[in-house]
Amino acid sequence: SAYITNTLFWRPPGNRKPTLLESELCLPFLERHVELVRPRVLVLLGGSSAAALLGTTEGITRLRGKWRTYARDGLEVPVLPTYHPAYLLRQPGLK
Length: 95
Description:
18% strand, single chain, alpha+beta, 3 strands, three-stranded mixed sheet
């Protein structure tokens, strides 16, 4: 089974990238989702989710396909960042 959630619980105006403040506002809720679900693996779709959960400014192109670890409050989960599906629809050559 799978559990899907968003890093931001609303769409930013103009579908722009979330600001740091917006991501920080939602982070405690996102971390609580992970804590409650206790997933065996996290697949982070896109740069915004990778930045929020991994606390990195590194771009998704460099992060994608490399296993990382999400660690918080004694919980460690393998993480695989990859491109967001919407991005792949706009850039089919990257599939």
